[in-house]
């Protein structure tokens, strides 16, 4: 334990995902040593992100405007919508440069143990979107774990009565992890090899 505010900083950093006690300590001491100006910039960005960052009205992606860059891009097609759990999955799929459609962010996955049901996700928003545009294919690109599987199965059932091709990423993604853990080549192959459900 350190004294006062330094320990407070370590405690706060330690609450962040993926930051263990050792990393929290290392980051805290890095900040203590850093120039005041760079610490101030970090603090300002933290405040600003809470005040100004928002979510795209259409797809739920993090966005600086009402519409995210992808939804606002006229070169992209509404014919294919790729359904993902989180905005970070969009970043992973964009990195493979294969997809020219739009996205839909669910905001998580069905997780009965964690208390997340279908109504907690942006599924009704997806259904509304499908009612009003020319989408022909839905790609389910959920995490290759139990929650992602449950969510894919649920969505497949919901989408079955609609006149749509529903596809899923091919197997080969590292099982149990997050979609964005996969390297670009593996994710690219899974994307191109997607199959109808
Ligand atoms: Zn969007």
From TrEMBL:
Location of the Toprim domain: 79-174
| Keyword Zinc set for record | yes
SMART domains cross-referenced by the UniProt entry? HhH1, TOPRIM
- Keywords for this entry? DNA damage, DNA recombination, DNA repair, Metal-binding, Zinc, Zinc-finger
**Which top-rank group of organisms is this from?**
Bacteria
Q: Does the keyword DNA damage apply?
A: yes
The record places its C4-type zinc fingers at: 56-71
PANTHER family under this entry?
A: RECOMBINATION PROTEIN RECR
Q: Which NCBIfam families match?
A: recR
Which family does the UniProt entry place this protein in? Belongs to the RecR family.
Q: What does this protein do?
A: May play a role in DNA repair. It seems to be involved in an RecBC-independent recombinational process of DNA repair. It may act with RecF and RecO.
Q: What is this protein called?
A: Recombination protein RecR
The record lists the lineage as:
Bacteria, Bacillati, Actinomycetota, Actinomycetes, Micrococcales
The encoding gene: recR
């Amino acid at each position: 334990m350190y004294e006062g505010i330094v320990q407070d900083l370590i405690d706060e950093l330690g609450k962040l995902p993926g930051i263990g006690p050792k990393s929290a300590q290392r980051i805290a001491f890095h900040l203590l040593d850093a120039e005041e100006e760079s610490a101030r910039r970090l603090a300002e960005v933290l405040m600003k992100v809470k005040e100004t960052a928002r979510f795209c009205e259409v797809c739920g992606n993090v966005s600086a405007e009402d519409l995210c860059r992808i939804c606002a891009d006229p070169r992209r097609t509404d014919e294919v919508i790729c359904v993902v759990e989180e905005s970070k999955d969009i970043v992973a799929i964009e990195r493979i440069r294969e997809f020219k459609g739009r996205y839909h962010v669910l905001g998580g996955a069905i997780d009965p143990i964690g208390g997340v049901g279908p109504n907690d996700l942006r599924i009704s928003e997806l259904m509304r979107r499908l009612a009003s545009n020319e989408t022909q294919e839905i790609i389910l690109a959920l995490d290759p774990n139990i929650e992602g599987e449950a969510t894919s199965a649920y969505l497949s059932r919901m989408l079955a009565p609609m006149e749509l091709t529903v596809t899923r990423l091919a197997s080969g993604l590292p099982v149990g992890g997050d979609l964005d853990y996969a390297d670009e080549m593996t994710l690219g192959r899974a994307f191109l090899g997607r199959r109808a459900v």
